[in-house]
Amino acid sequence: MTPQNLLQLKTQKCTVGCPVLDRCLAGGIPCNSLTEIAAESGCGKTQFCLQLALSAQLPSSHGGLSASSLYIHTEFPFPFRRLRQLAAAFRSSHPNVFASLHNYDPCDNVFVQGVYSADEMLDIMPKIESFLRVNSKSQFPIRLVVIDSIAALFRSEFENTPSDLKRRSSLFFKISGNLKSLAREFGLAVVVTNQVVDLIGEGEGVNGVRVGNLGHMCSSGRRGRDFWGRDVVEVLKMKVENWKCVWNTEIFVVLIYGYGS
């Protein structure tokens, strides 16, 4: 297969439940790929992912995947109450789509798993693969995997020593590699969230640039300024780990009282 053939292949997308964001993302979150969402704490990353887990259940005619999702959370407790609120709004927004399904509850198609450490995340990868295989024959097979957030797995477990930094990098790339392999094998849309931190500039203190606190899994930092001279940073940044989709999307938002979603 030539590069030209690959570029002509259409990658399935999953709507994020917002027409504005879908347009920015050329249709939604792509399958067969790993997508990173990097933003400051409190910008709405979890809200975005919960809504995505519900939107994945929509049929392809409505931009969804007709699929369940596996939501791996590393921040505790999991926001079940918020998920139920979003699920109620989701059902009311699509009253006719699931009318034929008896006792349909969107929450039943969101599988939740808590993970406490990077080592545990790596250890459960074979179990995730087995679960995906078993689930593939169901009415709503899993096509979306969310890890919210990847940063929490590495936040406090490691010291800033050469040996710990080496081990952290090794675990990070093993987890990333496993996720990309699962995405390709099962046609998954894999989404990871990552928090951003201030970048300390040489001789000038905090310089306003925000970067992923592990370094982006598949993105690079970028900055700009608005017309008030304040720093503008991306609250949603996306790069696809699938060279059939070679575009990047960055969404910049500045609020009067600071950054937000």
Structural class: alpha/beta
* Low-confidence spans: 219-235, 254-261
Tally the structural domains: 1
CATH topology group: Rossmann fold
Main beta sheet, described? 6 strands, mixed
Contiguous helical run count = 7
Secondary-structure element order, N to C: HEHEEHEHEHHEHEEEEEE
The CATH architecture designation is: 3-Layer(aba) Sandwich
Q: What is the assigned CATH homologous superfamily? A: P-loop containing nucleotide triphosphate hydrolases
What is the percent of helical residues?
25-40%
Shape: globular
- Please report the first level of CATH classification, the CATH class: Alpha Beta
Radius of gyration: 19 Å
User: Tally of extended strands?
Assistant: 12
Strand content: 15-25%
Mean pLDDT: 80
First CA to last CA: what distance? 41 Å
Descriptive keywords:
nucleotide-binding, 261 residues, alpha/beta, Rossmann fold, six-stranded mixed sheet, 7 helices, two-stranded antiparallel sheet, single chain
Task: Describe how the helices and strands are arranged.
Layout: H1 3-8, E1 13-14, H2 19-24, E2 29-30, E3 33-39, H3 45-55, E4 68-73, H4 80-93, E5 110-114, H5 118-123, H6 125-135, E6 142-148, H7 162-186, E7 189-201, E8 205-212, E9 224-225, E10 231-232, E11 234-239, E12 248-252
Parallel strand pairs: 3-7, 4-5, 4-6, 6-7
Antiparallel strand pairs: 1-2, 7-8, 9-10, 11-12
Helix pairs in contact: 3-4, 6-7
